[in-house]
Write a structure and sequence with these properties.
- Chains A, B: GO terms for molecular function: D-lactate dehydrogenase (cytochrome) activity.
- Chains A, B: Belongs to the FAD-binding oxidoreductase/transferase type 4 family.
- The structure is a homodimer.
- Chain A has 15 helices and 17 strands.
- By secondary structure, chain A is of the alpha+beta class.
- Among the domains of chain A are: about 70 residues, Uridine Diphospho-n-acetylenolpyruvylglucosamine Reductase, domain 2 (2-Layer Sandwich); about 120 residues, Uridine Diphospho-n-acetylenolpyruvylglucosamine Reductase, domain 3 (2-Layer Sandwich); about 110 residues, Alpha-Beta Plaits (2-Layer Sandwich), CATH 3.30.70.
- In chain A, helix 9 crosses helix 11.
- The interface between A and B is large, with 93 and 93 residues.
Chain lengths: ~450, ~450
Amino acid sequence: MTTTAVREQHANVTTYLPNEPADAVVFAACTEDVQTTVRICAAHGVPVIAWGAGTSLEGQVNAPRGGVCIDLSRMNRILAVNSADLDCVLEPGVTRKRLNEDLRDQGLFFPIDPGADATLGGMVSTRASGTNAVRYGTMKDNVLSLKVVTADGRLITTGTRARKSAAGYDLTRLFVGAEGTLGIVTEITLKLYGIPEAISSAVCPFPSITTACDAVIATIQSGIPVARIELLDEVQVKACNAYARLSLAETPTLFMEFHGTTAGVHEQAELFGAIAAEFGGGPSEFSVKPEERSRLWQARHDAYWAALLLRPGAKAVATDVCVPISRLADCVEATKADIVAMGLVAPIVGHVGDGNFHTVLMVDMDDAADLAKAKQFMARLVERALAMGGTATGEHGIGQGKMKYMAAEHGEGALDAMRAIKRALDPHNIMNPDKIFTL
Amino acid sequence: MTTTAVREQHANVTTYLPNEPADAVVFAACTEDVQTTVRICAAHGVPVIAWGAGTSLEGQVNAPRGGVCIDLSRMNRILAVNSADLDCVLEPGVTRKRLNEDLRDQGLFFPIDPGADATLGGMVSTRASGTNAVRYGTMKDNVLSLKVVTADGRLITTGTRARKSAAGYDLTRLFVGAEGTLGIVTEITLKLYGIPEAISSAVCPFPSITTACDAVIATIQSGIPVARIELLDEVQVKACNAYARLSLAETPTLFMEFHGTTAGVHEQAELFGAIAAEFGGGPSEFSVKPEERSRLWQARHDAYWAALLLRPGAKAVATDVCVPISRLADCVEATKADIVAMGLVAPIVGHVGDGNFHTVLMVDMDDAADLAKAKQFMARLVERALAMGGTATGEHGIGQGKMKYMAAEHGEGALDAMRAIKRALDPHNIMNPDKIFTL
């Protein structure tokens, strides 16, 4: 399709980055459709951009050079669920919520939850993670194998269903997080997990960001296998109270979840409570009731919508960084000080067990000065994270928005190695060009 | 050094593969030594082969085209242990045992244990794993960042100390398992873990391989976070009884280890016991005493030496494959049948939680027919694993010994992608050439 409306829907709409539509959108129904489209584009040197649900945050789906967008959302079949092997095979257009609805009856789940109901193909390509990553890892850790259409239209398979292999280069991990710049994922084999016998959640207020972060470090060090450990700063707690009609103390707060046996989650919660108390946190409120847990985590997942209440009319611009956990309190505190000094409205939420946190900036998009200030803040945030030995992005990816930090983070040598790989696998630079880096 | 003895010591000595020494051995004391050596070799088109402890099993350290072996064993400093971040930074010549001796006082450990006291550089390069991988993953999952000297002598850094990142291609995972064909690792940042509060072990006999494997599947599916779950077939149990003076029933047996809190390991052991009983296994013998646990795991780790008793004068040739766990019993049973049919002496041990198992063939190296039979058996083993959706090697790597299976496992397309990456990063093919694949 080539109508303006469809083309614009299939480009970036989530952030401050401009909407740069492709020249045409192809709706692929099967792998052969993808191969045919790529072959035609390759013959004419036309860019190819893959599309899932359009929830990426750094302009990954934009078409700055035009070209063809391949919408994979109709390739949404779950091809196999192998419960004995705890794995499944699916097409890239399956969304994470639908996958989990499908798996529930079999007592299985897929843990990675990047907030939005993204497609698994998009989650593979941006190396997504989310609240459960502290226990279950990121997409990097949960993809067993991929089928990928490469720049010449060939279909390759990157692995097997075996749980581990030492047979050659790890192509799977090369395509995970490559943002469609090396090929288009058309089939995914994922690890699955049994739904835990027991799940409990806890909410624990702290006097400060630092005490909350110190409690997180102690919790992780002590080996408590927390499934989720999320920080909300007092600004975000206030927003969640208003949006989700909660009555939490408006102070830095940890949201926790424990997975295990009934006795196990009880013990984990107790151990955590003792650690929290050591750092002046608490009292923790625990819950094992599914409806209370759902309400809590819905409030956490609605942080973005809640934040919008803080500045009516503004648009939310989410960004993320990740630092070694020992630097987390410093990084969050310095970031909060910057928010105050710059007069911004920007709650902070974090997957703090990984050292990863987000700021959600409320920006008046019609005010050029306001947007410029937001960009300045984001640049300082990344520089702060890099100076602390961290990364420019824990889970949102590079896309267009963070390309400018690649050399600072990786050094020219590593960036040249990435470029060499890109040239080797996509010599005519047709696969999602001008994302991650330019050639 | 260029003496024949030193050169031969620095090539393959562990298997049936020939000893193919380099022309000279350089003992690197620092990263600059590696860079200088690589630059000189690059200028003259001379191959460079990295060396750690020489424990690899597929000829990874051979020099079929001659060249320079860089011995990294003197680069053995632990540069930093960051206990708050649960990570450490070290040079590639540190061995895993020394690392753990160093960490013990701080209550930390590094779990990956490929049997031999390999260097961490070698473990990175062969994507090593071992008995703990079912709980802690393989080297792929436990390396945060690498410094690598590439084919042009440049030093690149592949990541940060942040726990996760979505910033560009995953160069770390590309070098992990590349067997030195893309560059030489000169610094490694590893994840660490707190030594568990409690560790318990168990030994559980089963009436058959199938029942033991079914118990393993049920254990993994139930979510019991087993730290180790190892299968020894009756042949290996017999050998261990003789070598380690144990008195285990000579039947397929699972060796288990549980990590957690005192209450947690007790609960895990009880849950496992109930599952084992369902499949006719047991009674389990449990132990929480360190000396009893050590004796048990020493016996497991000495499986190789024990196996040598089964055929005095023979040499042990170890090989491994990995299959989806649902096919494990079939694969092991078919392999045992083949061992019997071919009249071989070959105990089986397996990291069965991952679907990975080893056969240790007792071969009379002076008897060409005996060696030919062993090779025939190994080829059939790999073909069997591939036919079951598995991989040619779970943890030993490809080296020279398994190159012939790369196309069958990966397909020509994926193998071409690997070759393209190799050419891009090592255009003159000097980094450990003719390993994994030929160009």
